[in-house]
Specification:
317 residues, 3 domains, two-stranded antiparallel ribbon
């Protein structure tokens, strides 16, 4: 099973025992909370929670290693793209600028930009484990029944189920065709350069497309012969009823979702900003001692213009 990209892995775990509807609703709440804010404290907690759920499911890293490698590559490309197109986007968001490296041209490195890109990385860490768990712990037929239960048309739900079943089948066909082509003398191993392997992969693509089209034709004819889509509703063989554990998980998830939204927007801003800007020079004086309580002196030094005022702040420190 580890050689497949993403597919249902049957085993007994607390996550597997939950109904597909429960897992889908929890994932939707988790996704909304992930996209709603950039509070680093909450994102760290949710990332740790996602890792804990991954451990509870009994899923092994090697079983989903291929998709993890793809996601890591995508994350790196995304982070580099953010920096290339907006190297000071963090400065705009947090309203301050702490330079780490002057760089060249507009490509500078600031604490704010690093903090923002770390938050983007946390976003992936929050969402990827639950998304993978939803697929590897839920039977595709049960997942389709869950979609239909929450209001999705059963034709769409069935199409999603077929797609989830189709992913491992395509990869299985790819491996079979690849082995057949290598038996005919086409080298696709790591012994040759990546250019030759890329050319050899072209000889696999055409048979793979034809085999996929043949499978689609067989499935569509079978569905048509059974009058699929004639009725407005249908029953599901793999639907799982709600249990007490499902109810408890849903109640706990809704409570945590509401608390997460409150924590994110309690100060009227969905971004957590650890970079408190220093006050202007004219504001120093009686209120400086109060400002000193939450703004470190090195932040004052980054904004104050002359040595005399800096020495005044140093005495207050």
């Amino acid at each position: 099973m580890s050689r497949f990209m993403l597919s249902y892995i049957e085993r007994r775990s607390p996550i597997h025992l939950l109904s597909g509807s429960t897992k889908l609703i929890v994932f939707l709440l988790w996704s909304i909370l992930t996209m709603a804010g950039y509070d680093t404290r909450l994102m760290v907690l949710m990332s740790l929670g996602g890792i804990l759920l991954f451990i509870l499911s009994g899923t092994k890293i090697r079983e989903v290693s291929f998709i993890f490698k793809m996601l890591v590559f995508f994350m790196v490309c995304n982070l580099l793209g953010i920096y290339l197109f907006a190297p000071e986007h963090g400065v705009t968001l947090y309203g301050s600028r702490h330079l780490i490296w002057k760089g060249f041209g507009r490509f500078t490195l600031t604490q704010e930009q690093l903090f923002y890109e770390a938050n983007v990385l946390l976003k992936y860490a929050m969402l990827v484990p639950p998304a993978i768990l939803l697929i590897v712990t839920t039977n595709p037929s049960e997942f389709a029944a869950s979609l239909n239960r929450i209001g999705v048309n059963y034709s769409v739900a069935y199409a999603v189920s077929l797609a989830l079943r189709y992913i491992p089948d395509v990869q299985r066909d790819y491996q079979s065709i690849s082995q057949a082509q290598q038996a005919r003398g086409i080298e696709l191993s790591s012994k040759v350069s990546w250019v030759k392997r890329l050319k050899g992969a072209g000889s696999i693509l055409l048979p793979l497309v034809f085999s996929s089209l043949d499978r689609i034709d067989v499935v569509s004819r079978a569905m048509e012969l059974r009058s699929f889509g004639k009725h407005k509703r249908r029953t599901w063989y793999a639907a799982r009823p709600f249990s007490r554990a499902d109810l408890l998980v849903l109640i706990l998830s809704i409570i945590l979702f509401i608390l997460g939204l409150w924590f994110t927007f309690q100060d009227g801003n969905r971004f957590y900003n650890p970079f408190t800007p220093a006050p202007a020079v004219g504001e120093l004086g009686a209120g400086c001692l109060q400002s000193r309580a939450y703004v470190p002196s090195f932040l004052f030094h980054a904004f104050l213009p002359d040595d005399s005022t800096r020495s005044f702040v140093h005495e207050l420190s």
